[in-house]
Write a structure and sequence with these properties.
about 180 residues; alpha+beta; 60s Ribosomal Protein L30, Chain: A; 2 domains; 4 strands
Amino acid sequence: MKRILGISLALLILALAGCKTEPIKKGETPSDTASTSSSTGGNGNTAPGNNVPGSESMNAEQMAKQALSSVGFVIYFDYDKSDIRSEYNSVIVAHAKYLSGNANLKVRLEGNTDERGSREYNIGLGERRAQAVRRALMLQGVSENQITTLSYGEERPAVEGHDEAAYTKNRRVEISY
C-alpha cells in the first residue's frame, strides 16, 4: 500500500513538474492567462480564428474583458445606503452587455459594508446592495439565472482601518465572474 502511494505521489510530482506555467502580466488575472494558454493549445501556436495578447487584432471576448476592466468590477455605496449612484451606470451597462452577449456566463454579486452597525444589520445591508445591482443588471437584459448574490456584511473589508477613507472602500458590491 505504501509503495503504491509512493509511486502515485511520484507520478503526480512529475506530472506537475511538466506543466507549463506562464507569468501573469500586469492587469491580467489568472483566468486570463489560462484562457490564453487553452486557446493556443499550450504550445504557442494559435488555432485558426484565435488571437493571442500582443497581436494586432483582438477577438470579441478579449475586447469585452478589456472594456470591463476599464469600467471596473466594484460599485461603491454611500453610508447606510443601497442605492446605486449614477456614476456607476456605465459599470452596470458594460457588465450587462457582456453577460447578455454570453448567456452561459454567471456572475456573483458580493455585497459588503463597513464595520459600523451590528453584524446582522450589515449582512442585511450587504444583501440589499447586491440585490440593487442584480435588479439593475436585469433591467439591462441580463437573465435572472445568470446572477447570484451573496452578502459578506463587514466580514471581508477591502481596506483595514477605522476611518472614513477605509469605510468608503468597504461599502461596495464586487462583481465576480
